[in-house]
Design a protein that fits this description.
Elements lengths: L2 H80 L4 H84 L2 H13 L5 E5 L2 E2 L8 H9 L4 E2 L6 E3 L15
Parallel strand pairs: 1-4
Antiparallel strand pairs: 1-2, 3-4
């Protein structure tokens, strides 16, 4: 294999690994954003349940206040009814008392309904509070793992970039430029193996003479179809692990 081909092969392996690490580093904040968004939706649900419970309690207090007010009015009306001078006045007081008693019954019925609703709302709030507390702990733990993973990936990236820089310096400028140009054009894959007389990237059959020249490994060669830098690895002798000369 030509020395430049060996170097660009190493460079591509590093670049592909870097791309994986960079993708992971970029994905971690998005992952955190998703779980935080879910947590926020549960927080809003808890707030809504809490607001409904507060409104329920407020309505109950209002009806209880109405009952107390009606009872006070009835007491006064009974006192006034005792001093009624005519039958019409007596009946008027009586009708007013009956109306207020009906309002009290209505308020009492509504209080019973609100108490039933309150039990369900209170249960929802308590369950939501417990679930939210547990979820917050899980989210914080997940964020901690993400920060640790990001730090590990970033350290690995820094080390790999240093290694890449060392390899890139060994390449002739023309080879380095060709590699970068092809890599950008071919979605990060600038180097491909020639296997079975074909380019493993585009699967186009190589010309016999071209394949023979590639096997000699005395020059940097490019696929005549896709333009990628080609390399050839001779088959391995399974008995002793040596490369076969073909």
């Amino acid at each position: 294999m030509h020395p430049d081909t060996r170097l660009v092969s190493q460079l591509q392996a590093i670049d592909l690994h870097m791309a994986e690490l960079e993708k992971e580093v970029a994905a971690l904040p998005k992952h955190i954003a998703v779980i935080e968004k879910t947590l926020e939706s549960h927080q809003r649900r808890l707030e809504a349940d809490g607001a409904a419970l507060t409104a329920n309690q407020k309505d109950r207090k209002k009806f209880e206040g109405d009952i107390q007010m009606h009872e006070q009015k009835i007491s006064k009306l009974r006192d006034q009814m005792m001093g009624a001078k005519t039958n019409e006045q007596y009946k008027a007081f009586q009708h007013e008392i009956e109306y207020l008693e009906k309002e009290i019954r209505t308020a009492e019925d509504r209080i019973l309904e609100l108490m039933t609703e309150s039990e369900a709302l209170d249960g929802n709030v308590k369950k939501a509070e417990t679930a939210l507390k547990e979820e917050k702990q899980l989210v914080e733990a997940e964020k901690g793992k993400a920060r640790e993973r990001t730090a590990v990936d970033q350290t690995a990236l820094d080390q790999i970039k240093e290694e890449r820089s060392g390899i890139a310096k060994k390449l002739p400028p023309s080879t380095a430029a060709a590699y970068e140009r092809i890599r950008k054009k071919r979605n990060g894959v600038a180097v491909a193996e020639a296997s079975g007389g074909r380019c493993s990237a585009c699967q186009i059959t190589l010309r016999p003479q071209y394949f023979q020249d590639l096997r000699r490994g005395d020059q940097l060669m490019f696929c005549e179809s896709c333009g990628r830098i080609l390399y050839y690895n001779p088959p391995v002798n399974v008995e002793d692990g040596t490369r076969l000369a073909m």
